[in-house]
Amino acid sequence: MLNGNNIKELIQKLKSAQSWQEKRLLIEHFEICEASDPRMIKELIQVAQKGEHKMLQRAAVRRLGDTRDPSAVMPLIVVLLKGLPSVRESAARALGQIRDPRAAEALAAILEDKGEILREAAVHALAQIRGARALDALVSVLEDKEDEVPLRKAAAEALAKIGSDKAVDALCTALGDETNSVAESALLALKSLGKSAVEPLISALSRADMTTTARMMVARALGEIGDKRATEQLIAIMEHKDEHYELREKAVEALGKIRDVRAVDELIKIASQDPEYSVRCLSVIALGEIRDARAVKRLLRLLRDKGNPLTLRLRGLAAEALGKIGDSSAVGPLAEVLQDEREEWWVRDNAAFALVEIGDDRAELPLLRYFKDKLGFMCASLNEPSDSEQLKVLTGIQKLISRLIDKSPRRPGD
Question: Bigger pLDDT: 403 or 327?
Fold first, then answer.
């Protein structure tokens, strides 16, 4: 059990140690309850400010941070502002651990320092302290396009930890930053906030000061979070033909990730007749992700639309979407595509995998035949001696499939 005599003995050992290395070892092995004693705090402060070696000073500073004792704040601020560079960094991190708002002003001042590692330590400390001064300082770093990119990215991460309305607004604005890695950091920060960021993000979609690039990132963030509150605003952007097509693409992608059935009717319209081919394709993908049977009829029409070569990608995507929806009414049309040797290979492949997903017995024989042929092509492409083992395996599977085909009962039309 800890008592006054124990602390006196530890302090005496620390003072009488013959080298800084021995003192450092003692400090690093103090228990928190020992280091937190007011008498030991006083001794650690002296070592932190006047220790005979920077590594000893750092050990004392780190231990003071571990104690989280408010009495260490002002002495640590002195070290932060006047100490050696590596000790100043440790002081910044220790102040972050203590989380006393008195340190915010000094840490904010450090953001003007030239040392990148020290500044990053100050950013992380401000995130832990929070408060109005810390928030203002972090927003300033994020918005300063002349600042180092790693520091701005660290500020985005720090603002997510604070999570206030002002922090979220700053992160929303940063989504349009011309430095891609900063914008991506803001996106990740907003995603980490989850549902608490949804309403500000929805508001950001219609903010006059938001660039198209920023709004695209907002839509992407809403999709990543996946909250259905964003559905109506995203549908409005998707429907608005005057919006930039890339923004409409991001809105469609987000709707596919959110999977709200309220978007199905509008996505069906877009998939059928939108002037932007890329938006149509993404709408088909989104319908597959939402998995609502109302889309089956329109997807089947797209699948059968062979007249226009430009619809090839749409047809393949429609097949894939039908597989995800899993409606048995798609089995016959998909099987027709699968068995049509004049059909494009990509569409046939997607039809095959869609039928596998649906799992209807009627598709088993067509699938066996199709995969047997695919295995034949794969075997023919294996020419190197090193391919011999793969060739044996594939040939064996091909023969097994042939036997299954021979044993399968024939259905009308086979």
Answer: 327
